[in-house]
Amino acid sequence: MEYDSPWKTILDHLLYHCLQMINPDLFDDIDWTVDPIFLDKELNQIAPKHKVGNRFVDKLFQIRMKTGEIKWVLLHIEVQVSYDSGFPERMFVYNYRIYDKYQQRVISMAILGDSDDAWRPDSFSYGGYGSTMGLNYNVVKLIDYEEEDLAQNENPFAIVILAHLNALKNAGDNESRQVIRARAKKNLLRMALTRNYSRDQIRQLTLFIDWVMNVPEDLDNQLKEELHNEVGEKKMQYITGWERRAMKKGKLEGMREGERKGKLEGKREGKLEGKREGKREGKREGKREGIREGMRKGERKGKLEGKQDLFLHLVHRKFGTVPDWASSRAREADVKQIDQWSELLFTDKPLEEIMKPRR
C-alpha cells in the first residue's frame, strides 16, 4: 500500500488543522491571517529524490508568527516503518542542510505513524572532548491518540489520524480483516460526510480514507450503497474516488464494442466463401475469429480509455478542475504518455508542466 501520496495531499489542504492538533503551542503563536508558504522547491534542493511509495513524507513551509517574525518549519511524517536507525540522523541532516543553504533556523517536528510503542526517537547528537553537535525535535506518536477521543473531535485532522490508525490496526488480506476494515471505512466516510466541513475538506478526507483503507471491490460497492441509503445522494457526490471502477468500465465498454464489430466482420468474411458448405463453415469461423480479434482490439481501446479516464479523474482530484486543453491532450495521448503523466501527478509540478508536449 502506498501511503506517502495521500499524506502529502492531505497536508497541503489541512495543514492548519494538523498543527492545531499536533502542536497547539506553535499553532497559537502563528499569525493565520497570512497563509503558510510551502517550500517544496527549497526542500528538493537539500533532500534526496524519492520514488513513489516511500515510507516517509517531508513538508517544509514558511509561517509568520504573531510577533511578525518569519519562521521555517520542517514536518516529517514516518508513516509505516516500525524502526529506522537512520531516522534521527536524517532529521538532523535536513535541519542543518536547510540552515547551511538558506540561513534559516528550522523548527523540526516528526509524526510517527507506526505501531511500535517503544520507538520514540526525539534527538540526534555526536561529539566528544567537550564538543557537542546535535538536534532535539518535537515528536508526535499517532498511536498515543485515543480513538474514542478522536471520534468526538470536530477537527478534520482527527479523521485523518483515525483512518491511519484503523488501516494500521486492521491491515491484512484475510476475509475477517477486510470486513472489519470495510466497516471502519464506512463509519469514517459517514463521519466526514455528515459533519459541518467545507466542500474541499470533505473531498480531501474521503479521498484520504478511500486511499489508505483499501478494501476489495465487492465490499467497497456494498459499503457505498449502504452509505448512499444513510446520507443521501447530495452527500455522496463528494466521493469522487474509485479509479478501478472507471478502468473496468472503460475496458468492458471497449470489449462490447469490439465484439459487435467482430461479428459484422465475421459475417462479411463468411459470405466470401465460394462453396455452400465452405461458406457456412467459413462464416462460422469468420465470426469466431472476428469476435476474438474485435475483443482484442476493444480491450486495447478500453484499456487506453480507462487510463485516460483515470488520469483526468486524478487531475480533477488534485487541481479541482480539468481544463479543456488538458482533456483534449489526454484523449490524444497513448498509454505510455498517460502513464508518464500519471507518475508526474505525484510531484509538485503544475499541470502545464506535467502535460507539456515532449519532443
Report a brief summary of the structure:
With 359 residues, the chain is an alpha/beta fold. The protein is 60% helix and 12% strand. Strands 1-2-3-4-7 form a five-stranded mixed sheet, with helices on both faces. A two-stranded antiparallel ribbon has the order 5-6.
Overall mean confidence score, pLDDT: 81
Compute the separation of the termini in Å: 34 Å
Secondary-structure-based class equals alpha/beta
SSE series: HHEHEEHEEEEHHHHHHHHHHH
Strand content: 5-15%
Morphology call: elongated
Q: Number of domains in the coordinates? A: 3
In terms of per-residue confidence, which ranges show pLDDT below 50 for 5 or more consecutive residues? Answer: 50-54, 242-253
The total count of helices amounts to 15
Please estimate the helix content.
55-70%
Task: Report the sheet with the most strands, covering strand number, pairing sense and barrel closure.
Answer: 5 strands, mixed
Q: Biggest sheet: strands side by side, in what order?
A: 1-2-3-4-7
Question: What would you say this structure looks like, in words?
Answer:
The protein has 359 residues and is an alpha/beta fold. The protein has three domains: 4-144, no CATH class; 147-236, no CATH class; 243-354, no CATH class. The chain is 60% helix and 12% strand. The chain has 15 helices and seven strands. The chain has helices at residues 4-22, 24-29, 40-46, 87-102, 147-152, 156-169, 175-194, 199-212, 217-231, 233-236, 243-271, 276-319, 324-332, 335-344, 351-354; strands spanning 37-38, 56-64, 70-78, 106-112, 123-128, 131-136, 138-141. The strands form two sheets. Strands 1-2-3-4-7 form a five-stranded mixed sheet, sandwiched between helices. A two-stranded antiparallel ribbon has the order 5-6. A hairpin with a 5-residue loop joins strand 2 and strand 3 (70-78). Helix 1 crosses helix 6 (156-169) and helix 1 crosses helix 8. The radius of gyration is 26 Å and the shape is elongated. The two termini are 34 Å apart.
